[in-house]
Amino acid sequence: MIPTEQAAWATEIERHLFEHILPFWAGPAMEPEGRGWHSWLTHDLKPDPSRPRGLVLNTRILWTFAAVHDRRPEALFHDRAEVALRWVRDRFWDAEHGGAFWHLDAAGRVRNDTKQIYGQAFAVYAMTQYHLAFYAPEVLEQARTLYRLVDRHARDGRHGGYYEAFTRDWSARAVSLVGGQELGAAKSMNTNLHVLEAWTTLYQAWPEPELASRLRELLVLFLEKILNRRTGHLEHYFAEDWRVLSDSYTYGHDIEASWLLCEAAEALGDAELRKRAGAAAVQMAAAVESEALGRDGGVAYEGREGRVIHAHRDWWVQAEALVGFLHAWRLSGHDRYFQAARRVWGFIRDRVADAEYGDWHWRLDPAGRPDRSQPKVSEWKGPYHSARACLEAVRRLTQPHGVS
């Protein structure tokens, strides 16, 4: 039996997902006649069609509606997933060289043709999730094709992991649009984390031996090179040989990785890696809780040397903290993590959720006031973190202990 408190909380979170988050992304976030999604909406929902259509936003929307359809198979979610799939497969896809463009304009013309590996990972992730939700072998095949492209061109066969960006024809490296170029970074935690996330999902649909090897390689890199085991934080930017080039860390990536690493180990079915990932996950959650969790339940953005250096609270950080603390609670059995998750949820429900315009505010200041200069929709502001957090939180609250 699931304790009454957990069941009631799970019901509250699920209601928030289906009554507050998804109505916004299935409605006001869309362009007239459901052609696609606005590339930019201000906080009070004014569109700006001059802004680029981003690969990240559109793949995350595709992933979201496919994932929620698994939880509640409604025609609306299937329809929205179909609209998103058409953009990802037909407009963002490079029919000549393979892979997905980074930016389109309002009319769907290519605006930035570089192959950012971060974006390629989200395309694999989203198309695979679509196949898992609706059984679409042709979409899965496109995800496999993209995986092979990324693995052939972007993987570092000597040191492991994946480089950041390539020209349209994959013939040369390009400037990363995910950060680190000012440090001369060849690789980033962020890109490799989302490649790991994508490969984990693809492996669930396609358990192929080479893919298992690549997923294992990434997981070990996180445990041995990217995670600083002394501090419990992820390093951010690296040289080719994984020499660290940065000196700060972001609490949202730490707590997000804490459970994604465990998901990868679980997919591989490796007991030793599950144990190592679980220990790392609890360590990372403890570091975030002790350093970044405020009295009001909000989680700060960035730290250095054990102290917060940027105290604003972005929506996605709160989403990942909700899941990460619940995950640490299930792994460790320690009530402190359950209570931490409770505090984060209270902050989300009372402060981050936008009661006036729907969905969540992008950012709140340290006093908990929303920054209304930040957009409600942009190439980076989508439904993926918030919707996924609700789905993952409900799963962790409703599964009996001992079931992963």
Number of alpha- plus pi-helical segments: 12
Low-confidence stretches: none
So, CATH architecture? Alpha/alpha barrel
Order of helices and strands: HEHHEEEHHEEHHEEEEHHEEEHHEH
Sheet with most strands: 3 strands, antiparallel
Distance between the termini: 16 Å
Q: Using only CA atoms, what is the Rg?
A: 20 Å
Reported by name, the CATH topology is Glycosyltransferase
Class per helix and strand makeup:
mainly alpha
Taking all residues together, what is the mean pLDDT?
97
What's the CATH first level? Mainly Alpha
* Record field, number of beta strands: 14
Overall domain count: 1
- Can you list the strand order of the major beta sheet? 1-2-3
| Helical fraction | 40-55%
* Global morphology: globular
Strand content: 5-15%
Short synopsis of the structure:
With 404 residues, the chain is mainly alpha-helical.
Describe this entry's structure for a reader:
The protein is mainly alpha-helical and 404 residues long. It has one domain (4-398): Alpha/alpha barrel (Glycosyltransferase). Helix content is 54%, strand content 8%. The protein contains twelve helices and 14 strands. It has helices at 4-25, 55-71, 75-91, 117-134, 137-154, 189-205, 209-226, 251-268, 271-292, 315-332, 335-352, 384-398, and strands at residues 53-54, 103-104, 110-112, 115-116, 165-166, 187-188, 227-228, 233-234, 237-238, 249-250, 302-304, 307-310, 313-314, 363-364. The strands form six sheets. The protein has a three-stranded antiparallel β-sheet with strand order 1-2-3.
